[in-house]
Amino acid sequence: MPIYKTITPNKNTTVLVWKIEEDLSFLQDIYLNSNSKNRIAKMKSEIHKKGFLSVRHLLAALDYSDKDLFYTEDGKPHLKDGKRISITHSFHFSAIIVSNQVIGIDIEKNREKIIRIADKFVGKENEFLTETNLVAQLTIIWGAKESLFKIHPDGGLLFKHHLPIEKFELSDTKTRGWIKKDNFYEVFTIHFEQFDGFTLVYALN
């Protein structure tokens, strides 16, 4: 089982990262409920199928199965035992975070094209961005805001305005981020790390 990384930020929280190197036939050898079977049957991309299936293998590593996972109408995943879960995958990496706390997770490939779309999600963070390692900085900011977006209960968030991220250095490994929308105001610790050209970010309250 190619679990690439296990992170335990606290005693109630586990992050698992999977590096997807297997054939699809190997990944398909996992229990899927009827809804998941229908979802994967509609996927045209093999890498999307692999990401979906590798997440089920990560669940199994924590003694869960697909029958323990369900999605609400807003598309957010939940575990039947009441623990919080957040899921992400990008290219050949997937990851989950399971906790008693409110959490969100994102993994992204570091790509130059993020510079072209930065104006769509970067607000006051422009004040501390530098030209050196700009792609890495922007990918952390995007991952942080995506993680916070997954946490907010009602949606309707503007990444540029509602999800400010505190100044950080790449060597810090964590910063803070806020969800500020209407009467919703909460601060979260943002953890981040980079490996194999990817950025992993997760938020904890």
Give keywords:
alpha+beta; Ribosomal Protein L22, Chain A; four-stranded antiparallel β-sheet; 26% helix; globular
Describe the structure.
The chain is an alpha+beta fold and 205 residues long. The protein is globular. The chain contains six helices and ten strands, in the order E-E-H-H-H-E-E-E-E-E-H-H-H-E-E-E. The strands form three sheets. The chain has a four-stranded antiparallel β-sheet, covered by helices on one side. A four-stranded antiparallel β-sheet has the order 7-10-9-8, covered by helices on one side. Strands 3-4 form a two-stranded antiparallel sheet. The longest helix has 18 residues, at 134-151. It has two domains: 3-100, Alpha-Beta Complex (Ribosomal Protein L22, Chain A), CATH 3.90.470; 106-204, Alpha-Beta Complex (Ribosomal Protein L22, Chain A). The chain is 26% helix and 34% strand. The protein has helices at 24-27, 34-41, 46-61, 114-117, 134-151, 159-162, and strands at residues 3-10, 13-19, 69-71, 77-79, 84-90, 93-99, 103-109, 174-181, 184-195, 198-204. The two termini are 30 Å apart.
What is the structure about, briefly put?
With 205 residues, the chain is of the alpha+beta class. It has helices at residues 24-27, 34-41, 46-61, 114-117, 134-151, 159-162; strands at residues 3-10, 13-19, 69-71, 77-79, 84-90, 93-99, 103-109, 174-181, 184-195, 198-204. It is globular, with a radius of gyration of 17 Å.
Oligomer: single chain
Straight-line N-to-C gap: 30 Å
Largest sheet: 4 strands, antiparallel
Q: What is the CATH topology assignment of the largest domain?
A: Ribosomal Protein L22, Chain A
Assign an overall shape. Answer: globular
Strand order of the largest sheet: 1-2-6-5
The CATH architecture of the largest domain can be named as Alpha-Beta Complex
**DSSP E strands, number:** 10
Average pLDDT figure:
95
Rg (CA only): 17 Å
The first-level CATH class of the largest domain is given as Alpha Beta
Structural class: alpha+beta
The total of helices stands at 6
Secondary-structure element series = EEHHHEEEEEHHHEEE
Beta percentage is 25-35%
When the domains are counted, the total is: 2
The stretches of 5 or more residues where confidence is low (pLDDT under 50) are none
Overall helicity:
25-40%
